[in-house]
Design a protein that fits this description.
The protein is α+β, with helices and mostly antiparallel strands. Helices cover about 35% and strands about 25% of the residues. It has a single domain, classed as Heat Shock Protein 90, CATH 3.30.565. It is built from four helices and five strands, in the order E-H-H-E-E-H-H-E-E. A hairpin with a 2-residue loop joins strand 4 and strand 5.
């Protein structure tokens, strides 16, 4: 983990615009501004789910991660609610009666935009995370 930024707030829609702006500014500082649109959409979807289904407090974290063969941006949204069953969500997408008519479109977008995503249980809640591929030639150690 080379760099991180955390934004905390318990208000829902009133903070969404400022969180997206904070993310854009942080990504520009890290030299990964081209990820801002995808990162902002992912954060919007994950924050929306946290406020809708989770419990406060809610936090957003960004981390430049170079522990792999290629660096990535890891986005995490943590709340105090119960963990998400990622396998069940994906199974719903595959089931003919599931579709995307009511719920699940946000996570489907997260799935489409990210390299990987999932849910990690924590002692006081859980974190839904997503990873975006860093631009070629970007070194998180330079951030």
């Amino acid at each position: 983990m080379n760099g991180s930024c955390e934004v905390r707030d318990s208000a829902a829609t009133s903070v969404l615009g400022s969180v997206r702006q904070d993310i854009r500014e942080q990504l520009d500082r890290w030299g990964t501004g081209e990820l801002a649109d995808d990162a902002a959409l992912i954060v919007s979807e994950l924050l929306g789910n946290a406020f809708r289904h989770g419990r406060p407090p809610v936090s957003v974290s960004l981390t430049l991660d170079d522990r792999r063969d290629r660096p990535c941006l890891r986005i995490g949204v943590t709340d105090s609610g119960t963990a998400l069953n990622v396998d069940l969500v994906r199974a719903k997408w595959r089931h003919p009666s599931g579709g995307l008519t009511t719920d699940g479109r946000g996570l489907w977008l997260v799935d489409a935009l990210s390299l990987a995503w999932g849910d990690q249980s924590r002692p006081t809640g859980h974190t839904v995370w997503a990873e975006l591929d860093c631009p070629a030639g970007h070194n998180p150690a330079d951030a």
